[in-house]
Amino acid sequence: MNAANRKNLRIVGFMLALFCALTFGVARFYMSEGLTWTSARIVNTVFYVLMAGLSLLMMRLSDYRFKDFGVFFFSLWWQLLVGFGIAAAFTVIGMLATGGYVIPTDWGYLVPSQILTGIAEELFWRGLLLKLMGELLHSKRKAVPLNALLYGLWTWPLTHSWVTVILSAFIGLAFATVRVEYDEEMGIPGLAFAHILMNVF
């Protein structure tokens, strides 16, 4: 393994270990007695700010440009349009699968929190980790199923639902595939937009 891939492996290992540990910690906190909505919201916000910030920091410390991780804003309208299409497709599939749609009530918290969640998760999973996994495996396409599987399993501590794990892995597979196959056109902004719309609606 060359020096560049050793560095990539250290970044991937560190970030996965850190956020898996933090996810288990957050899950235990959510299950604790005396939990209030305010404290849960604060923990959730800190968690995703940390995820976004550290993802950007690791991108900066790597041997690649932000553009290589999908952090670019050219073709932004096209990215947003495709993101809307992806979100619409998954929302319809979700409504058909669950038999309905629940109208959110707490829009004041829901929208900003899901904007943060969508941006942070896309920077981490389809930005930083997908790129570095592709380098380690010497193939971006080989990294897609592994990335999707880990993304699905990552939801287990918070949901304890294999249905959620499978659905999340499927969504992760679709998002990672779009990112890899349209590397020059579809970046993190478009995927984050899709992610936000799906989480809100």
Sum up the structure in keywords:
mainly alpha; 201 residues; 8 helices
Order of helices and strands: HHHHHHHH
Structural class designation: mainly alpha
Tally of domains: 1
Q: Catalogue the unreliable spans.
A: none
Q: Using DSSP, what is the number of strands?
A: 0
Helical stretch tally:
8
The general outline is globular
Average of the residue pLDDT scores: 92
Distance between the termini: 44 Å
C-alpha Rg (nearest Å): 17 Å
Largest sheet: none
Approximately how much helix is present in the residues?
over 70%
Classify the beta-strand content into a percent band: under 5%
What does this structure look like?
- With 201 residues, the chain is mainly α.
- The protein contains eight helices and no strands.
- The longest helix is centred in the middle third of the chain and has 31 residues.
- The mean pLDDT is 92.
Characterize this entry briefly.
This protein is an all-alpha fold and 201 residues long. The chain has helices at residues 3-30, 37-61, 76-98, 107-137, 140-154, 156-159, 162-181, 188-200.
